[in-house]
Amino acid sequence: MIDLLSSYNLIAEDYEQLFPNFENTMHTWNERLKNFIRLEDGQSKTILDVGCGIGVQSMVLAQLGFNVYAIDISEQMLEKGRKLSKNYDQKVKFIQGDCSQLGTVLPKNLKLNGFICCGSAILHLSPDDNTKLAKKLYNLLSKGSKGLIEFFNWSYIDIENCKWTPRSHFRNDNIESFSIEFFYDYDRQVNSSIILFERNWENNEPWQIKIQSDFCYWKYLPEEIAKFFIQAGFTKLDLLAGSIKNPTSTIVLQK
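RE: above sequence
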């Protein structure tokens, strides 16, 4: 059985190396999030980043002027996020905890003006846990607040024909690294391994496996994710299923 917490803890310190261009990723999210929710002059808004990982979107929201709370189950991922946010001179309140148990880890009487949940977080949660998450977020949000959920749409991913997928390739000083992700399908869920290789290229050393972390995802369709939140009381504003070229689904909700 895959232990997600151990897997994320293991890969946390090198996680930004899985992005082909980390600076470009930050810039892309800045453009996207500033159009998702706007901060008016003199206005204070509090946003929750659910399953924040190392805090890429959290830091972008802080850059845009929001008061950001970011929650993740992995303390090592959060610690990496704290280092990165310090490097980028951004203030984010990182909190360790289970996304399905928000009431036990967030400050009491916290009222949110929006939330985001991007990446793999929503796909790691069981149907019961997603139901709990949706209900808790609905109760935490002020009326009219928006939520943004983004995740892979597995219906556009031919696992049989993309078992080995390249993720990134870097050469810094004398160290070269690249990462791949290997998918293997198990009915309702998908398992994967992310493998990071490294070598000293100046000395022409052979490649070595630096890290291998294993993950498990539920194969939710966008309509299934939307249903969890609609049943909790949210209104669906938009749903983009994605495409074969870009298998990323986006759901925009409002309380």
